[in-house]
Amino acid sequence: MGGHSHWSTIKRQKGASDAKRGQLFTKLSREITVSAREGGGDPAMNSRLRLAIDKARESNMPADTIKRGIERGVGGGDAAALVETTFEGYGPGGVAIIMQVVTDNRNRTVSEIRTTLARNGGSLGESGSVAWQFDSVGFIALDVGDGDPEEVALAAIDAGAEDVRTEDGRLEVYTAPTELVKVRRALEEAGLSVSTAELSMLPKNTLALDERSAVQVLRLLDILEDLDDVQKVYSNADFPDSVLMEYAAAQ
User: Fold this and answer.
1) Do 144 and 25 belong to one domain?
2) Which residues form the domain of 73?
């Protein structure tokens, strides 16, 4: 699990300083719009929207842009053309990949994803071909600071967490998807610093890669994430630490 988690950490760090902020805001706005369309425009009553707004604020999205995304979702219009879907496929070394998409043109998105996979040693799979290898979870990353990691872990479990792991000097908390907002709120009320809170896909088992395949998979995941219609990408890859260190240094 370590390599997979480390890659996720690097991607979050990269996103915080990514020059393509316009593309990032577009993806966040789409998530806000779809969340508001599906569950209403009140974040107090719509936990998915609450998470989307929090993520947008963490990325320094202007308040007016967030507001417009909500209004677009509840107001209908072109928001009705946005479709949520999931694609599944394989990367180099047989790595399983899941891509969560929001698009206004499914045929265009399918073509882009299929071409990207094929050009980078992968292939598009059928629906259900790899999804069984993942669990839907709530994910929270905590900055422990000077606190006692064991005490923080106990607080997370008391709040309803299903699992707590230590990665790179921080705590990663996993919850049932429906419990994510409640657990996050409890942790924050306990005075703990939450750096990330989001719905995620956790591989049941990871696939260890050699250095050559690891580099290929990292490049592929990067390219997929940069596609305009792709919101999130998950894999079951476990990358060698040496490859991840070189990759992080190059970002």
Assistant:
1) no
2) 2-81
